[in-house]
Amino acid sequence: MKWLGGRESDNVEYSGRGGGGKLLGGGIGAGIIGLIIYLVTGYTPDQVNRMAGSSANNAPIETNKHFESGSAGNFASIVLAETEVIWDSLFTANGMTYTKPRLNIFEDEVNSACGGASAAVGPFYCPSDQKIYLDVSFFNELKDRFGAPGDFANAYVIAHEVGHHIQYLMGTTQKMSRLRGNGDRSGPHSTSVMLELQADFYAGVWAHYAEKMNSKDNPVVIEPGDIQAALNAANAVGDDRLQKQTQGRVVPDAFTHGTSKQRMYWFKKGYETGDMSQGDTFRELAN
């Protein structure tokens, strides 16, 4: 993936380094800690805080942040800018208005409208403030611990979180929240899994159009092997694989994101079709 020299987004803020200790402290079983640390999204920060019994301290926020060329922050900002162009175009084509999310880049700990969180939570989207939260050190985790290296694997993570923003704008998040309030099934057919797989699908839709944007006028260029890197990342963060790594066994009733096979399937479907209407994970999983 070529991205150096690309346009950065104007919707990035920097929280810096949070104060206090790590949120994930003693008293939590190692298996549960591993799942929280290595799942890309799915647990809200306030859920993690209740389990950990801590909260993050406030840190000053630098808005409209731009980063040193070639840095991880620079990369994340450029990827976000490309998602803005693509999703704005798709929403406009469908008679809708795209409201851009903000990306909050932090170190160690952060406060969001969904609660305080540590970097151990992984990247997450908070619908209450329509922000994506990212400690870019997660990119190293994706490479070193998950075995999913490459810029496009990192871009997939950002595109997945933007996918959750798309769900919020489409009203899907709110609908699923109401269903949860009325009692939700657990495991492979839970609303959580359905939401996560649809976010993977939307990440694939972004990749579909990002590839078509390859031109001299667009510094972000998808290269051979990039899509496979994204599929590797989707495979690496499947519930079954993560549970096997952290607990030594697979417990389907505890799934929150979907299996590696499912995550790869839905990303690939979004990438191959580029058709937002084909991402109804809720209908297919209910069968």
From TrEMBL:
InterPro entries: Uncharacterised_pept_Zn_put. It is a single-pass membrane protein. The keyword Hydrolase applies. The keyword RNA-binding does not apply. Pfam families: Zn_peptidase. GO terms for biological process: proteolysis. This is Metalloprotease. The lineage of its organism: Bacteria, Pseudomonadati, Bacteroidota, Chitinophagia, Chitinophagales.
